[in-house]
Amino acid sequence: MGKFLTSRSEDYSQWYNELVVKAGLAEQSAVRGCMVIKPYGYAIWEKIQRTLDDMFKATGHVNAYFPLLIPKSFFSREADHVEGFAKECAVVTHYRLKNDPQGGGVVVDPAAKLEEEYIIRPTSETIIWNTYKNWIQSYRDLPILCNQWANVMRWEMRTRMFLRTAEFLWQEGHTAHATKEEALEEANRMVRVYADFAQQWMALPVIMGCKSESERFAGALDTFTIEALMQDGKALQAGTSHFLGQNFAKAFDVQFTNKEGKLEYVWATSWGVSTRLMGALIMAHSDDNGLVLPPKLAPTQVVIVPIYKGADGLQKISA
Question: What CATH class has 2-22+40-62+123-318?
């Protein structure tokens, strides 16, 4: 593949874009900013997903699924959250199409306008905490340790396959706790899970840290992160874990009766990694000859069996 690739030293960005396509991992789609993940690329993602899912379950988490569409009013309840995502939201305004009476093809039926618009989820904190309100009454209901595997939509203006696309695949954990200490412990535990996965499975050294106030997740009190150094000398955010405090519990009035019989607001975390890990994998290991993958995540395993005749042949392959 090497002679067909722009070299990293010549144009690192172009090298990456060419490699993703020529290695058969993904391609551009007819939808602006979205990609088609091809079978070979998806096989790598499946290995990532399967391993992480086992790691989540080993730490007591269970999978659930929440709706893709979120009522617009939910985003108004947590001011920092809506401010952080307002410019990235795709909005559903109508629920029906019809044939144009003038012969112009299919058009949106103006009579089918929704009373309240829906947001295609950029992240699920709002709809999940609206749901948790129905699940939590007592300290006996805590903790809740849920994860979901899903797709999300963030209307990115400048996109690159795997690294930043309008639609991408990810997992998002959302947990509820009785105390601040438990929630902080959870947020730190999960960023360590991400670091362990990156180092042990992706063969990717990472630095764990805490985001500055300006870089925190919208609505979080603290955001913990793993950052990886790419071959171009730039750091890539590979995963984040957020301590949300009681912000979302207060926004959606999620309270529980503690052991003393008093009402308290629940403490929260959320954490996630996405198909950006695929981009990190490519940029960390591949070279001018093409795609290089660590053995634990390579879909195709190859074993080289040397065949030789006599001692001279053995010496040649052993050298």
Answer: alpha beta
